[in-house]
Amino acid sequence: MSNFFNGTAFPDVSAWNAFSANELERNSEHLSAEDLAAAWQNPSANAYLYQNGDPVLKTVDGGTTAEFSLDEVANLRADTENGIYLGDRNGAPALAAIISGETELPEPYITLDMRSVVTSGSVAAHQVAALGHGWSMLAWHKNHRFCANCGSKTEKAQAGYRRNCSSCGRVHFPRLDPVSIMLVVDGDRCLMGRQPHFAEGMYSCLAGFIEPGETMENAVRREIKEEAGIDVSAVRYHATQPWPFPHTLMFGCFAKAASTNITMDETELEDCRWFDRNELGDMLTRENTLKTPPPMAIAHQLIKTFYDFSG
Amino acid sequence: MSNFFNGTAFPDVSAWNAFSANELERNSEHLSAEDLAAAWQNPSANAYLYQNGDPVLKTVDGGTTAEFSLDEVANLRADTENGIYLGDRNGAPALAAIISGETELPEPYITLDMRSVVTSGSVAAHQVAALGHGWSMLAWHKNHRFCANCGSKTEKAQAGYRRNCSSCGRVHFPRLDPVSIMLVVDGDRCLMGRQPHFAEGMYSCLAGFIEPGETMENAVRREIKEEAGIDVSAVRYHATQPWPFPHTLMFGCFAKAASTNITMDETELEDCRWFDRNELGDMLTRENTLKTPPPMAIAHQLIKTFYDFSG
User: What is the pTM assigned to this prediction?
Assistant: First the structure.
């Protein structure tokens, strides 16, 4: 018996992150227009709905739901023509569609921005994940109606998991933008910065899009060097988070500082400094003048993990 | 002093992978059309060139180079108009451009497909990485000449790190497609499969594109369930690899099997089975009837790591 996987536990820390509790069984490669049409006729189907980029919710006994029956979808005049098939949960299809901004939502339906949906805590985790999943795909469809290769109109295919160009023959798949986000650690302290648009007093991890031709580890090194002038030795992967603003995939890492003098990129940041571990406890509760991002952000989870497991 | 990063070594195993040794300092966010124009006039600049999708090479004393002087770029009539700025190495700009397929290359210039460039071992690792970097970006430019949002023509911006649509105002960044690739481990054995188009006798790790709304770990679980019907418990990140075919980012993982009966997806695979660890040594040398992918592939590194560190 091999000891390759023994001796160390590998908890799925990505499961700590908002938007990670996706319970939809996908079969995306094998879905067809017929499957999509049948799902919109399936009495057990549910749909996630959006208006002006925000999820639609309804208060029900014991909480808030983002899953609507097909009768409700029809009453709310959702654009099922451009709707998509996300996957199945307990055998029931989950669909997603947009309601025109001109439609007035009747009671008890409301919209709430995605961040508030998460922080409210009133929507089940699997629904939060499906809401993010649906929005990443619908936003991609909205912004990819034309073929980047030839400029012609494209058409939804594979029940929403693809768009086809009938003019040049290209197929287009949903775009996901990988980002590295990292907490730089130097013994008992960690590096955080703030951008001018952040909420007052908020400091967070540095982050940036991974670029062509670099590993995740080298992207971490480059970002920290560019934004803070700090050199990094070891980089340790922590967790991923699907981040539906609109279709980012966050790769959270810890990075070990190999230098400590900060040279800040003033076009990106308005402050960047080392924080002692004992400053972090109050920042994580967010009741302090200085605070971390909220728990829904992977940055919070990185900072909390460092706080909990160091010292 | 914190022990957060102590007690365990975090070697950068991504550095074991082909295309990972990128030495170019990017400054992509701050590059302009003026910087690009100046680089094409800089006597210390080098360019990476491609024809029909393959890198251009030249044999020189002591090896093969893919870096060409601007005089050579002019002689070879590379399309500098659509050329891009990758970054700087030792202060010298590195550029990339395409040579028309109709241009006959004079001696001593040749083209060689990207995989053969790597396996030949004759091109320096930092050049191999730059070749991959350049091709991922040039292929994106070639296939993204139009705005996916409105269908208008787009224009190169930020020295090649962006395209702008002057019609609807959208900006477009190079696309990177994250893929999870995983070796499933069950004690002393691991799971590999083969697709019909593989070289004879070759078996490899399972893999698939990460989709919107899922973590890397859940993408691993879904792919293994879809392709082999196997359940997975722990997932452990190993390394990333930039994979320029044309702009993929591979996330290599180990996954611990929680079930062992294989139900193969026959539309994807023509075989899938468990391999005992003692079968792997001969497969890794690739002199056997059955073999792994070559060392340039992250799949090889995953299999080799399991072989070296298990048992």
Answer: 0.96
- Mutation target for A interface from B1, B4, B226, B274: give the one with most A CBs within 10 A: B4
Amino acid (one-letter) located at B151: G
Q: Is the pLDDT of residue A77 over 50?
A: yes
Nearest to A1 among B187, B222, B244 (CB): B187
Query: Judged by CB atoms within 8 Å, which residues 255-274 of B form the interface with A?
Result: 256, 267-268
Q: For residue B309, which residues of chain A lie inside 8 Å, CB to CB?
A: 4
Residue B213 contacts A where some CB pair is shorter than 8 Å:
yes
Q: What is the DSSP letter of B168?
A: T
Q: B27-48 pLDDT, tens per residue?
A: 899 999 999 999 999 999 999 9
CA separation for the pair B311, B306 (Å, rounded): 9
CB pairs under 8 A between A and B: 223
If you measure CA to CA, which chain A residue comes closest to B188? A2
Q: Which residue in the set A146, A178, A218 is minimally distant from B146, CB to CB?
A: A146
Q: Please write the tens of the pLDDT for every residue from B115-139.
A: 999 999 999 999 999 999 999 999 9
How far is residue A196 from each of residues A227, A270, B28, measured CA to CA in Å? Answer: 14, 6, 21
Q: In b/e form, how buried is each residue of A232-268, taking b as 16+ CB within 10 angstroms?
A: bebbbbbbbbbbbebbbbbbbbbbbbeeeebebbeeb
Q: How confident is the model at residue B61 (pLDDT cuts 50, 70, 90)?
A: confident
Token pair of A13 as six digits: 């820390």
C-alpha–C-alpha distance, residues B87 and B82, integer Å: 16
The strand pairing partners of B242, in sequence order, are B249
Helices B277-285 & B298-309 angle (0-180, nearest 10): 130
Q: In a 10 Å sphere around its CB, with 0-12 CB exposed, 13-18 middle and 19+ buried, how is residue B227 labelled?
A: buried
- With CB atoms and an 8 Å threshold, state whether A213 touches B237: no
